[in-house]
Amino acid sequence: MANAPMSGAYFIILLCVSDLVSGQTHYSIPEELELGAFVGNIAEDLALNVWELSARKFRLVPDESKQCMEVNPESGILFVHDRIDREQICGQSSTCSLNFQIALDNPLEIHPVAVEILDVNDNSPRFPKSEFTLQINELIAPGARFPLESALDPDVGTNTVSTYQVSPNEHFGLKVQTRSDGSNSAELLLKKYLDREKQASFQLVLTAIDAGIPQRSGTTRVMITVVDVNDNAPVFDNEMYRASVDENVAKGTLVTKINAVDLDEGMNAELTYSFTSHASQKIRELFTLDPATGEIRVQGVLDFEESSVYELDVEAVDSGLAGMVGHAKVIVRLTDMNDNAPDLDVTLVSSTVREDAPPGTVIALISVTDLDSGEYGEVQCQVPVQLPFKLQKSLRNHYKLVTKAILDRETVPIYNISISAWDRGNPPLSTNKTVLVSVTDINDNAPRFTQSSYNVYLMENNTPGSSIFAVTALDPDLGYNGEVSYSVLANPLQEMSAPAYVSINSRNGNIYARRSFDYEQLKHFQFKVHAQDNGSPPLSSATMVNVIILDQNDNVLVVVSPLTWNSSGSVEIAPQIVYAGYLVNKVIATDADSGQNARLSYHLLDTTHPGLFTVGLYSGEIRATRNLRDEDLTRQRIVLCVKDNGQPSLSSTVTIFFSILSNVTKKSLEPSHQPRTLEYLSDINRYLIIILGSASFLFLIIIIFLVILKCKQDRNIAEDDSSAVCCYNQRNSDNAFIRRPAANEQLKYSGPDQAESYRYAVCLSPESSKSDFLFLKPCHPTLPFTDPTIPDSNA
Predict the structure, then answer these.
(1) Most CB atoms closer than 10 Å: which of 102, 369, 410, 712?
(2) What is the H or E stretch that residue 288 is in?
C-alpha cells in the first residue's frame, strides 16, 4: 500500500503527453484527480523561458475551464484546481475535453490548450427499481422470454454495463443482447415447464456488471409468480361483425353489440370487452366499447369524406388469474350524407378588361369540387344572367368565365360577379364567390356640350379681356380620354372672324371678349366652340354660341330740327298768324340708342315770357298758348331739355330764339276753306327752303364741273364703255377730297352753320352721262338709304 502514491504519480506522468498539433498543446488526464495534481509544464512544452513568465504576465485566459484548471505564473506548470467529474462535465459523450488559452504580453501571444478527461470506473451499475414482479402462466412452453429492466451506468466505454447474471436455478436463465447503440439488455429465458403445485413462486437476483478496473456491479430482485391454468379462452358469436351508420350521427348512437362465451366457470368465465392494442387512437376517439355489455357507440364526429370504413379490433378477456383472450373484428361502414358544400377555386386571368373587348374574352378559370359522393357530388355552376358575362364549360367541373357582350365603362365601371355553385342534395348545398372585374376605359365618347347652342346676352361697352360666358363639354371617359380642350372656330359667313371678337380658355371653356362691342355697330354675331378630348384618336364636337349685344344708354341725343348752332337756333314768327294752340315749331331730336334708351321726352326749362309757349312732352311741338300782343317782346327765348328714358338718363339742352316780326304787312289770313295744314308753311320756312336750294344748286354745279373734268381725264381708259357710271363723294371734312365711288354712293354735305350733316346720293347713269344731268337724293342720318335696286318715284 506504501507504493500506491508512487504508482499513482507514475500513472499520471505516463498519461500526461504534451505535443503541438496545429499550434495546440494537448494533455490527457483521468477524472477525479486530487486538487493540485500535476497536469503538464506548459512553459516547457511551449519552449518559453521561465524567467520571463512573470514579466510577460503568463496567465490562463479566464473561461469556464478555469474552475477545474489553474497555471502557475512563475513556473508555467498546469495543475488541477477543482474536482473533475467527467460525467458531470460531458455526460455520456465518448470524448471529453477542456479547452482554454494561455496568454502572454510583450508581445501578445495566445496559445490554445486542450486537456482530455479520461473516464475512470467510479460509478456502479444501478437498476431503476430494487424489485421487479413477473406473472407467468404455468402452461407457457420453455423457450419463452420475458424482458427485464436494464441497469444504468454513467461511465462510458468499458466502464459501463457489459453483462448480466441471474442467481442459479433450474427453470430460468438469461439471454443478453446488444442493442444498436452498443448497450446491453437482458431477457429472462424459461428453460423448463413450470408447475404451480410444486413451486408457486420464484425469487431471483439479477446482477449487472461493468468491465472496468476494478469491476463494479449492481443488483435487483425479480419476483416471479406462477399463475394457475385457465384453459378455456372466450369465443365470440362471430369472428367478424358488420355494421352501417350514417356519417355525422349524434354522439351516443349505437353501432352494434358484440358477445363472447367462456366455457370456464367462476372468475375464469367473467368476461371484459375492450379494444385490442392494434386499435388506433383515432378509433378510440370515434367509438366507445362498453366493457361489460359489449355495446359499441359513437363518441366522435364521423366523416365519410375522411374515411368510409372503420375496422375495429376487439377482444374479450376472462377474469381468471391468467386471463384468456378471445378476438374479433367489427367492420363499420359509413353512409355518405350531403354535408359538404361545393368548393369553388377561381383563378383570375385578368382583373381588368377593356370595354371594347370582344365577346368571349376569358376573365377567369373556375374549378368546382364537392367532397361528397354520388349525386351529392354532382355540381352545377352559374353567374347572374343580367350581367354581360357567362360560364363556358371546358372539362368536367371546370369552367371559363367569359364576356358575352360589349362592355361600357361609362355605364358600369366595376362588376362584382357572383359565381354560384350547388350540388344535387336535398336540400342542396351551395357556395358563392365574388370576382371583382374592372373595366378599363377607351376613348369611345366624344365631348358633349350641356346645350346644343348657347345664347349670350352681353351689354355693350364691355371691358376687353373680361369673361362673358363659359361653356362646358362633358366627356365621361377617364384620364386623357376625358380631358377636354376648347377652341373657337371662325365663321366664314361673317365679315370678321370670331377669333377677332372672342377668345376661349382651352382648359375650362371660359370665353373672353377681345374688344369692347358697340350695339350701334354690331348687334349680333355667332361663332362655334370646338371641344376635343386628348384620346387617341381624339374625338370632338362643336356648339354654336350666339352673342346678342344689349343696348346701353351711351349715345347723347342730337337735336336735328330746328337747325342749331352751339345748341341754339332762331325762328321767326309772324304775329298775325299766331293764335292759341298754334304750332310755332317742332323740336326733333334723334338718339342712336334703341328701345327705352331712345324714347325721348321734351321739357321746358326756361322762357322769356312764362305761359306764352308750351312743349309737347313726347312730340316736341312748341305751341302758342294765346295770340301775340303788341306789348310782347319782339324776341322770345325758350330753353328746352330733351331726355331719353335710359338708366341713367342722358339729355341735351337747346335754346330757341323766336323773333317776332313787325306787323308791317297786313296780309289777310288764308281763307277758311283752305286746308289748315298750310299754316305750317311759314315765311321763315320759305326763307330756309330758298337758302337751302340755292346752296344745293351751287354745290351741284361744282360737282358737275368736277365730274366732267374727271371724266375727260379717264376718257382714254373708258372710251369703249359707253355705259360707264361715275359717281363722286364729298365727305364732311375740312379738307374735302374726290374719289371714284361705287354706284349710288351717298355724298355728305355740311354747312358751316349747321349742327347736322345732310348726305346726297349723286349718281351718274348712262343716260345722265349723255345729258350731263345729275340726280341728288338727300339722306337724313336717322333714315335708311334708298335701296338702289328700287326705282325712286321722285327721280
Answers:
(1) 102
(2) strand 287-289
Percent of the chain whose predicted confidence (pLDDT) is above 70: 80
Helices (H), 588-744: 683-713
Q: Which residues is 205 bridged to in the sheet? A: 221
| CA count, 13 A, side-chain hemisphere, 109 | 17
Q: Tell whether omega for the bond before 30 is within 30 degrees of 0, i.e. cis.
A: no
Report pLDDT digits (tens) over 709-747. 877 776 655 444 433 333 333 333 333 333 333 333 333
Buried/exposed code over 348-360 (b: 16+ C-beta within 10 A; e: otherwise): eeeeebebebeee
Architecture of the domain delimited by 131-227 = Sandwich (2.60)
Burial of 255 (0-12, 13-18, 19+ CB in 10 A): buried
Please name the residue that has the C-alpha cell 336717322.
Answer: 782
Distance CA 88, CA 68 (A): 12
Whole-angstrom Cα distance, residue 783 to residue 11? Answer: 152
4-118 matches 235-335 in fold: yes
pTM check: above 0.85: no
Of residues 749 and 344, more confidence is placed in 344
pLDDT in tens, 374-392: 777 788 898 998 999 999 8
Domain ranges in the chain are 4-118, 131-227, 235-335, 343-440, 448-550, 558-681, 687-779
Fold (CATH) for 558-681: Immunoglobulin-like (2.60.40)
* Mean pLDDT of all residues belonging to the chain: 78
Tell me the per-residue pLDDT of 496-541, one tens digit each, with 9 for 90 and over: 667 788 999 989 999 999 888 888 888 888 889 999 999 889 999 9
Closest CA to 644 of 604, 606, 592: 592
Parallel, antiparallel, or unpaired for β 172-178 and 325-335?
Answer: unpaired
Cell numbers for 546, please give them: 350666339
**CATH number at 448-550:** 2.60.40.60
Looking only at Cα atoms, what is the longest distance across the chain? 200
Q: 4-118 architecture in CATH?
A: Sandwich (2.60)
Residue 225 amino acid letter: T
What's residue 494's pLDDT? Answer: 58
Q: What is the pLDDT of residue 80?
A: 86
CATH number corresponding to 235-335: 2.60.40.60
E strands in 482-582: 484-489, 502-504, 510-513, 524-533, 540-550, 558-561, 568-573
* Domain at 343-440, CATH class: mainly beta
- Kind plus residue range of the DSSP H or E element containing 44: helix 42-45
Containing H/E element for 768? helix 766-771
